[in-house]
Every structure is written in C-alpha cells, then in structure tokens.
Amino acid sequence: MRIVERPSPNFGPRRDAPIDLLVLHYTGMRDAKSAIARLCDPAAEVSAHWLIDEDGTIVRLVDEAQRAWHAGASRWRGIDDVNSHSIGIELVNPGHEFGYREFPAAQMDALLGLAHEILARHGAIDARNVLAHSDVAPARKLDPGEKFDWRRLAAHGIGLWPATPQPTSRTLVELLGAYGYDTSDAKAAIAAFQRRFRTARIDGADDDECREVAAALLKAAGLHYL
Q1: By the 8 A CB rule, do 68 and 83 touch?
Q2: Contact 206, 173 (CB under 8 A)
Q3: How many C-beta atoms surround the C-beta of residue 97 within 10 A?
Q4: I want to staple 70 with a disulfide (CB 3.0 to 4.6 A). Which of 48, 57, 166, 173 is the partner?
C-alpha cells in the first residue's frame, strides 16, 4: 500500500476518548488537488486522517493519534465529540454539488486495504461504528452518499449490511435510535439511513420496507430490538 505524506496543520489532541469510530466522507470538491489544499489550509480549520484519490493513491494528512477535524457538529450512540472518538477518511469525489459519480474500483480497493489496517490497529471500532458522515450528522451532510458501495465493504468485514428483512412492531425512529442515530430531526435521520441502506427511495418517510430493513440491521448488530 503506497502512502503519500501530506501533513495538515489542522488537528489537536484527542480529548481522553477511545478511538472507536471510523467515519467515511467524500471530499465534495472538483478534484483531489483542491481537496488536499483545503484540508491543509489553516484558515479552513478542516482535515481528516486520510484521503484516498480516485486512482487509489492514499494520502496521510493527520496522525491517527491526533484529533482530526472532519466530523463537525455530530452525534452517534450518544457520543457528541465524534472527532475525538474517530478516524476520518476522505474519498475524492465531487459530491452532489459538483457532479456526484460512482467511486472507482481502484479507490474502493485502496479503501478496503486501509480500513482493514485501521480496524486492526483500533480494536474498539466494532462493525456498528463504521459510519458515513451523513450517519453522524444527518441534518447537515449527505456524504459519502447513495452511490457508495456499503454492501461491498460489509462483505469484506467492514461495517454491517442487513440480511433478510425482519418484521417489527417498532417505529423506524425507535429502531434508528436504538442503532445509534441522533433522531432529534427524525426526517433527516431516516433519510440518512435510506441513503445508506435503502437507496431506491430517499424521502425521509417511515415505511414498512425501511422498518423491516432497520430491524434486520439491528439483528445483524446483535440488537434484537423488534
């Protein structure tokens, strides 16, 4: 795995927290050069630990021991300081604003290799804590979006994917809250879930299909909250 060093000044110390989350983003900029420039600009006050270009090149921006500034205002499983708890990976992609497109095979292959190494280094990151930026900030963010292949990651042991839909008597908001989402904005939380697990229709609405998929996801996580 070839790693390019491009240190960013945008980081600080972790705030006495275990590293137990892995958060995936897209850069949402026109190209890798622009994204790296922003992630290394002190005035921007944003960064990530890693960036993966579309050709599979891996760039290290911030040492994993440090707190990179990638998640912003966010929450997962009651954790508010997601940056202190997480490793952040940026995937070069123009995003919804600049011509959102599929993530190339070379980029996904590089991500699989890097993610496996991160999970090996940080054993507290369980499958339920491999996340989209939109999972931890559903009212603000869309990335890495509906074109990202979460199913492939789960097939390689990175994150979770629901199997057979499960009948449930719970509302979708109850199920998502039990899984870890901040449901204070219910429609945003549902849309974030759909963007990842039910991409055929992303409308932020509770429906039977979503409830059954969410129940299957909880079962995959060992949470029998039906």
Answers
A1: yes
A2: yes
A3: 10
A4: 48
Angle value at C-alpha 150, between 90 and 195, nearest 5 degrees: 85
The pLDDT tens digits for 164-213 are 999 999 999 999 999 999 999 999 999 999 999 999 999 999 999 999 99
Helix (H/G/I), strand (E/B), else coil: 131: strand
| β-pair partners for 89 | 24, 50
Q: Which part of the chain has CATH 3.40.80.10?
A: 3-155
The Cα–Cα gap between 103 and 12 comes to 30
N residues, the chain: 226
Q: Which of 139, 145, 153 is nearest to 22 (CA)?
A: 153
Convert the pLDDT of each residue in 64-110 to its tens digit.
999 999 999 999 999 999 999 999 999 999 999 999 999 999 999 99
Phi, psi of 67 (to 5 degrees): -95, 100
Q: Could you tell me the CA-to-CA distances from 219 to 162, 165, 173, 182, 195 in Å, in that order?
A: 8, 10, 16, 19, 20
Contacts of residue 34, defined as CB under 8 A and 6 or more positions apart, other chains included, come to none
Give the three-state DSSP class for 87.
strand
* 3-155: CATH, from 1.10.10.10, 3.40.980.10, 3.40.80.10, 1.10.3720.10: 3.40.80.10
What is the H or E stretch that residue 121 is in? helix 105-121
Q: Whose CA is closest to 135, among 82, 193, 87?
A: 193
